[in-house]
Q: What sequence folds into this?
C-alpha cells in the first residue's frame, strides 16, 4: 500500500483496510530517493522506499516488509528499485538483493514467482516526517 | 613371501619388463633376477607397434635397457622358451634343455593372437599382428607381392574391426595397399563403443580410404597359384561375397598363453588365463602370474594398464610390502589411426541412465556421458577426448559430478556456441533445465530473458548459465526470423556499448541525466547497475554519493558481499598475496572480536564472513588502520593479482613476479568493468600462479614477460591466449592498460573478457591491430582514460570513513540505530556459520 506526497491520506487498496496506528519513522529528507531504508515499526522490520518522480509519475513512497520472502533474510530495503510498464501504468518495483525476484511495491505481489508475496504497509508524510501504519489488533 | 633370492621371470613383454624394473628398483642386489624372453630382443612398446610402419625404429620402440639392468644384476635369456615347470624341484626347463632353479617364478607370457579356424587360414599371405617379427614378415610379403604384381595395387584385408584390427589396417594402409577391414559384428570396436560412437568412428575410417565390411562372416580364405607358389587371393563371405586380398592379417582377439602353467597343474580360468589372487599369486605360493596371461576375478585384461598395476603390486609383495591388485577398470584413451578414442566406466547405453550427448558429424566428434542419479557412470568419446580425465574421475567417484554438460562440450566450444548444442544438454545445472526445454519455451512464445527464466526456471539459481541462455535465446529468435533486440532492458533501447559511448560523449555524471536523456521509467535491476558501472568506469567518484547510491547492486550497495542470510563478508586487498605478519594478526583479531568466519579465498586473500551492516564501518576502521584497503570483492572490478614468489625466493623463478603483481594490482585496483577482472603473475613457465586462467595473465620469461589475455575459470573455463611475448615492464603495462580500457568500452554487461573476446570479429589479430597498431586511432584515449583512473583512485572504505554522513548510511534500522536483527547462527568446526536455509531472524 502506498501514499503520495500530495495526498497524505492513505488510500486503501488492500483488504486489510482495518485501523492502523501511525508510527513516525524519521524525517523525510533522511531517506534518499531510490535507495531504501529499513525501520522497526511496532517491532517489525519494514523497508521504506522513496521513488523519484519520473515522466508523468510524481514522487512516490512505498513500505513493504524488510524480510525477503524467499530466504527469510532481512534485506529488502537493500534491493534495487525500478519500474515495469509504460505510462499510464508504471508500477514501481524492488528486486530482492539475494536472488533478484522483483516485487510490485504497491501490492507486494512477486512478478517472477507466483508463490512469493511481500507484506505491504501504508506510509504517509506528516509535518516532514515519514509515518508508517502498523496494523492495530482489534480489541 | 619376503626376500626371495632368485626370481625367474618368464616372458619379457611390456608387463614382464615393468615388473623387472619395479623389482630391481626396490630390491637392488638382494634379489637375483633371470628373465627368459622368447623373442630375440628385449621388451618393446607393443601399444605403439603400428608406428613402426610410420618410420619408428626397433630402438625407438624398445623399452628394455639391457645394459643398465644387467649391471643391476638382471640376467636376460632372449630367444628362449620355458617348456616345463617342475614345481616340486622349484625349477624350469628351457627349450635348449637348460634347467634353472627359482625361489619365485613369475609368469608373464602374455597372450597370442586368435586365428579363427576358417579353411585356408594358414595360406601363404596370412599373418597375425603381434610382434616386431610379424611386422617384418608382413612388410616382406607386401614388397614381394608388389614386385610380382607390377602396376596392380595390392589389396590388404584385416579380419577384425576391434582396436588392434584398426591398428593393423593402418599398417596395411601405410604399406600402400587398398585396405579393407572385415568385422563380424555390425559395428567397429563392438567391445568398447555403442552404435552411435561406432558410427562416428566409421566416418573417420571412411575418410582414411579404409573400406569397412560390417556383419561379414568369413567362410573361407581362398588361394591361387602364382608363378608356381600358392598365395592368398581373397576372402569368401558366408553370403557368397568375395573380397580380393593379396595379404590377410588376422586380428580377431587374443588368447592367454597359459599352456606351460596348465601342464604343471596350475588353475586355469574358465575363459583361459592362470588364476591368481589379489597378491597375483597362483595356487602355488612360489608362482605368480601377471599381465595378459593372468586371470583375476574370472577375467583377463588385454590392456597394459592393469598389467602394470599387477607388476607393481607383485614387486611390492616380493619386497615385503602388502600392495594388492584388486581388479581394474577397463577405461582406455588412445589415438587410433590418429583419432582420439576413449571409453570409461559403463560404455553401453543402459535404460534408465541419463545420456548427455554431443554429436557433430561434420567434425566427426561424438561424446556421450552416461549419468545415473546425477553422477557420471561412464562414457565414450570419439574424435576428441578432451576432459577424459575429469569425466573418468567422476565415473570412479574420485571427483564430484559437476558441470558435466560443459565438460561434454568438445574443446573450443564455449558459451557463445551454446546454440550448437544438442537438446539433451543441460543448460542450467541448478534447476536441471535442458536446452530442449528452453527451445520449447521459446516455441511457446517466450521472447525475452525474463519470461524465459520464469517459464523454465533456468538461470534462477546461481545464474551462471544466464550468458548461455541469452545466447541461445538470441540464436533461436534469429532462426525464427524474429528481430533480435539488443537493448539493455525495457528502459534503454541501447546496448551497453552504445550507452557507454553516449555517457562518455555527453559527459553524464548522474543517473537522472542518463535516464531522462536516453531511457524511460525508473529503470530496473539490469540497467541501474549497468549505468552505475559505466559512471564508475568513466570517473572515479564515490559510488554511493548522489543518485548513484540507488544504482548499486546487492554487493556494491554496502561495499561488501551479501551472503544468503543478509550478512556480509569482508575482503581486504592483499596485493599479490603478500601480507605482513602484523596485518595477518590484526585480521585474526578482527575476526575474533566480531566473531567472523574466516576462509582463505582462491585468490590469495582472506575472507571474513558474518558481518552485519552496522559492523562494516567498525571492521573497516581497523582494517584500514592496519594499512590495508578495500579489496573490491563486492564490485565488478579488479579482484586480485595472484602471484608466486618468483625469483625472490624460488630456485626456478626468472623474474620478480610478486613485485610485478603488486604493481599491476595497485594500478588497476578499483577499476570498474562490465564484469569482475582477475589476473596473475607467474615467475617462470611452471606457472604456479595459474596466469593462463585469468582475464589477463603474465608469465615471466628469461628476458621479460609473456602476456596472456581473455581466460577465465567459472562455468565454462577458458585458457587465456598468448597475446605478446617477452615484453618489457613498460610495454606490458601499456598493453594491459589498453586491453582493459577497450574491453570496458565495448563489452556487454556482465560479459567476462573471454566471452567478449570470442565475439570479437578477427579475434587476436584484430585486438592486436586495435591496441598495438592503433588501427582505430583510439589508443591515446584509452591511455588517457587509464591514466585518469590511476590518478583519481581512492579506497572506497577510506572515503566512507572519512565522511561521517557516508558512514552513517551503514545502520540497519533508520529509526533505531541501536537495534539489529539477529541472524541464527550455528557452530561448525569451531566457527560461526548461518543456520540452514529458512531459519534466520
A:
Amino acid at each position: 500500500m502506498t501514499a503520495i506526497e500530495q495526498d497524505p491520506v492513505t488510500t486503501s487498496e488492500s483488504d486489510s483496510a482495518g485501523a492502523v496506528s501511525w508510527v513516525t519513522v524519521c524525517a523525510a529528507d533522511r531517506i534518499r530517493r531510490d535507495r531504501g531504508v529499513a525501520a522497526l515499526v511496532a517491532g517489525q522490520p519494514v523497508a521504506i522506499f522513496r521513488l523519484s518522480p519520473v515522466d508523468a509519475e510524481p514522487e512516490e513512497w512505498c513500505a513493504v516488509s524488510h524480510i525477503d520472502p524467499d530466504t527469510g533474510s532481512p534485506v529488502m530495503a537493500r534491493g534495487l528499485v525500478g519500474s515495469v510498464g509504460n505510462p499510464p501504468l508504471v508500477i514501481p518495483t524492488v528486486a530482492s538483493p539475494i536472488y533478484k525476484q522483483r516485487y510490485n511495491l504497491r501490492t507486494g505481489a512477486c512478478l517472477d514467482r507466483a508463490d512469493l508475496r511481500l507484506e505491504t504497509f501504508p506510509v504517509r508524510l506528516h509535518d516532514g516526517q515519514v509515518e508508517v501504519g502498523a496494523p492495530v489488533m482489534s480489541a | 613371501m619376503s626376500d626371495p633370492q632368485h626370481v625367474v621371470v618368464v616372458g619379457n613383454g611390456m608387463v614382464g619388463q615393468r615388473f623387472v624394473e619395479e623389482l630391481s628398483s626396490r630390491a637392488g642386489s638382494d634379489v637375483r633376477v633371470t628373465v627368459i624372453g622368447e623373442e630375440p630382443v628385449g621388451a618393446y612398446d607393443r601399444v605403439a607397434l603400428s608406428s613402426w610402419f610410420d618410420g619408428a625404429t626397433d630402438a625407438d620402440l624398445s623399452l628394455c635397457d639391457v645394459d643398465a639392468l644387467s649391471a643391476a644384476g638382471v640376467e636376460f635369456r632372449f630367444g628362449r622358451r620355458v617348456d616345463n615347470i617342475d614345481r616340486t624341484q622349484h625349477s624350469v626347463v628351457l627349450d635348449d634343455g637348460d634347467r634353472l632353479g627359482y625361489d619365485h617364478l613369475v609368469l608373464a607370457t602374455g597372450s597370442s593372437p586368435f586365428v579363427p579356424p576358417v579353411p585356408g587360414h594358414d595360406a601363404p599371405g596370412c599373418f597375425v599382428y603381434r610382434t616386431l617379427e610379424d611386422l617384418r614378415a608382413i612388410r616382406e610379403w607386401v614388397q614381394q607381392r608388389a614386385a610380382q604384381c607390377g602396376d596392380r595395387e595390392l589389396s590388404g584385408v584385416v579380419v577384425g574391426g576391434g582396436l588392434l584390427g584398426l591398428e593393423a589396417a593402418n599398417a596395411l594402409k601405410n604399406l600402400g595397399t587398398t585396405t579393407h577391414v572385415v568385422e563380424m559384428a555390425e559395428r567397429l570396436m563392438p567391445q568398447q563403443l555403442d552404435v552411435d560412437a561406432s558410427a562416428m568412428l566409421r566416418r573417420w575410417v571412411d575418410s582414411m580410404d579404409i573400406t569397412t565390411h560390417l556383419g561379414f562372416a568369413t567362410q573361407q580364405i581362398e588361394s591361387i597359384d602364382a608363378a608356381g607358389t600358392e598365395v592368398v587371393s581373397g576372402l569368401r563371405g558366408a553370403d557368397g561375397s568375395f573380397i580380393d586380398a593379396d595379404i590377410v592379417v588376422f586380428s580377431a582377439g587374443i588368447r592367454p598363453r597359459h599352456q606351460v602353467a596348465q601342464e604343471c597343474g596350475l588353475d586355469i580360468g574358465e575363459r583361459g588365463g592362470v588364476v591368481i589372487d589379489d597378491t597375483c599369486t597362483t595356487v602355488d605360493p612360489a608362482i605368480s602370474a601377471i599381465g595378459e596371461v593372468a586371470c583375476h576375478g574370472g577375467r583377463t585384461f588385454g590392456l597394459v594398464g592393469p598389467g602394470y598395476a599387477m607388476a607393481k603390486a607383485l614387486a611390492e609383495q616380493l619386497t615385503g610390502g602388502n600392495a594388492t591388485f584388486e581388479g581394474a577398470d577397463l577405461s582406455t584413451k588412445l589415438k587410433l589411426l590418429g583419432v582420439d578414442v576413449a571409453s570409461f566406466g559403463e560404455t553401453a547405453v543402459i535404460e534408465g541412465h541419463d545420456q548427455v550427448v554431443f554429436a557433430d558429424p561434420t567434425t566427426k566428434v561424438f561424446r556421450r556421458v552416461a549419468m545415473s542419479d546425477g553422477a557420471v557412470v561412464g562414457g565414450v568419446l570419439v574424435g576428441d577426448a578432451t576432459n577424459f580425465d575429469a569425466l573418468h574421475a567422476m565415473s570412479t567417484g574420485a571427483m564430484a559430478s559437476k558441470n558435466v554438460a560443459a565438460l561434454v562440450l568438445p574443446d573450443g566450444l564455449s558459451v557463445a556456441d551454446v546454440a550448437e548444442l544438442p537438446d539433451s544438454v543441460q543448460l542450467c545445472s541448478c534447476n536441471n533445465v535442458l536446452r530442449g526445454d528452453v527451445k520449447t519455451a521459446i516455441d511457446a512464445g517466450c521472447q525475452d530473458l525474463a519470461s524465459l527464466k520464469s517459464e523454465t526456471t533456468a538461470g534462477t539459481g546461481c545464474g551462471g548459465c544466464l550468458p548461455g541462455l541469452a545466447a541461445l535465446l538470441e540464436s533461436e529468435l534469429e532462426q525464427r526470423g524474429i528481430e533480435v533486440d539488443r537493448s539493455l532492458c525495457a528502459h534503454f533501447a541501447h546496448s551497453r556499448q552504445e550507452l557507454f559511448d553516449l555517457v562518455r560523449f555527453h559527459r553524464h555524471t548522474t543517473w537522472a541525466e542518463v535516464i531522462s536523456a536516453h531511457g524511460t521509467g525508473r529503470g530496473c535491476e539490469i540497467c541501474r547497475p549497468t549505468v552505475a558501472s559505466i559512471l564508475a568506469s568513466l570517473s572515479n567518484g564515490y559510488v554511493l554519493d548522489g543518485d548513484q547510491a540507488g544504482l548499486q547492486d546487492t554487493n556494491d550497495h554496502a561495499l561488501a558481499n551479501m551472503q544468503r542470510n543478509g550478512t556480509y563478508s569482508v575482503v581486504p586487498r592483499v596485493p599479490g598475496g603478500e601480507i605482513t605478519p602484523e596485518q595477518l594478526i590484526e585480521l585474526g583479531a578482527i575476526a575474533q572480536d566480531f566473531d567472523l568466519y574466516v576462509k582463505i579465498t582462491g585468490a590469495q586473500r582472506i575472507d571474513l564472513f558474518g558481518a552485519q551492516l552496522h559492523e562494516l564501518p567498525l571492521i573497516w576502521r581497523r582494517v584500514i588502520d592496519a594499512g590495508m584497503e578495500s579489496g573490491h570483492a563486492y564490485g565488478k572490478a579488479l579482484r586480485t593479482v595472484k602471484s608466486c614468489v618468483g625469483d625472490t625466493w624460488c630456485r626456478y623463478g626468472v623474474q620478480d613476479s610478486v613485485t610485478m603483481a603488486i604493481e599491476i594490482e595497485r594500478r588497476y585496483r578499483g577499476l570498474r568493468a562490465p564484469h569482475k577482472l582477475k589476473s596473475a603473475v607467474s615467475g617462470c613457465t611452471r606457472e604456479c600462479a595459474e596466469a593462463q586462467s585469468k582475464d589477463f595473465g603474465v608469465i615471466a620469461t628469461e628476458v621479460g614477460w609473456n602476456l596472456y589475455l581473455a581466460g577465465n575459470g567459472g562455468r565454462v573455463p577458458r585458457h587465456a591466449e598468448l597475446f605478446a611475448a617477452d615484453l618489457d615492464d613498460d610495454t606490458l603495462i601499456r598493453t594491459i592498460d589498453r586491453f582493459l580500457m577497450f574491453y570496458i568500452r565495448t563489452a556487454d554487461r556482465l560479459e567476462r573478457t573471454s566471452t567478449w573476446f570470442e565475439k570479437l570479429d578477427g579475434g587476436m589479430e584484430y585486438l592486436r591491430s586495435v591496441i598495438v597498431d592503433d588501427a582505430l586511432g583510439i589508443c591515446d584515449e584509452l591511455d588517457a582514460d587509464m591514466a585518469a583512473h590511476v590518478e583519481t583512485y581512492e579506497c572506497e572504505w577510506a572515503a566512507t570513513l572519512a565522511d561521517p554522513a557516508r558512514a552513517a548510511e551503514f545502520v540497519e534500522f533508520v529509526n533505531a540505530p541501536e537495534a539489529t536483527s539477529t541472524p541464527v547462527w550455528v557452530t561448525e568446526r569451531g566457527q560461526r556459520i548461518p543456520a540452514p536455509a529458512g531459519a534466520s531472524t
Notes: The longest helix of chain B spans residues 132-149. The interface with chain A takes residues 450, 453-454, 460, 490-491, 511-512, 515, 520-525, 527-529, 547, 549-554, 557-558, 562, 564-566, 812-816, 819, 821, 823, 837-841 of chain B (CB under 8 Å).
